[in-house]
Amino acid sequence: MDSNSLYYSLDLVSGSGHTLNNEQRAALQTSLLILKKNYKFNRILFWGKILGIKRDYFIAQGKGQDEMKDKKCLYSFNCMDWHLLPPVSDSEVKEASQAARGRFVGEPAHEYEYLETRIQAEKDGAVESQVLVKVNEERRLAATVHQIDDEVSVVPRQAFIRTPHGLIQTNRSFEGLSHSEAAKLNNFLHFSKPKNLKKKSILQMSDLDPSIDFLDPLSDDIPQGGSWSLQFECGSNVCVIRSLMWLGLTFFHVPMTPQHGYIYMGEGCRNLDLPFML
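RESULT FIELD:
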């Protein structure tokens, strides 16, 4: 959710029941501008809030030249003092998801522990051994933000373009989807590295524009029709999409305008009960 339109955007997604108070909004309005200047970001977004038992984590995300690859995440407890989140690899994301269960505590130094079974090859054959793995909450926070971005970040079709140099940037000529287009889930895309695009047939690929159709549409998600909720709110003037996999992820788009964005406000836990809810 772009910091330049934070006040306006928060009101459009408040139907989910999660919002910020006036003190937090005022603090973000000032501190995000300072972050943008200090870190020399091209854009800075308010990513959302992860609810903790003792304290809540407020997350900001800064974007560089490439909107998808060149980004940094920061967290704060008071919307004023920010700390940079460490980058995480796929193996660290897996470790964090295995070690940490339940809600966040709200203490970055809090440690989660789990026993990992490892197989080592020896002369007499394979030997199993158990290793104690520790993951602190700051790394779990970084892994959770990475997972949510990778699995449920949403943008409208044509909102971003891929340049001839391979950079992904905002499309300045994007004027918004029409009301009829906004009612179809296939006109909204995952803003993450595509996973299913290469699996499409040659006939399907021939209908795609490589400069704008380089991301996976939400309509391809499994289970189809059961991962997302799409509806129109505010007198049918705003298209709102909510993730059923990561409860708390809300996306909005105002048809016929370039206004769009998403925010996450939740406990930072994947909804494992989704198959039983369908």
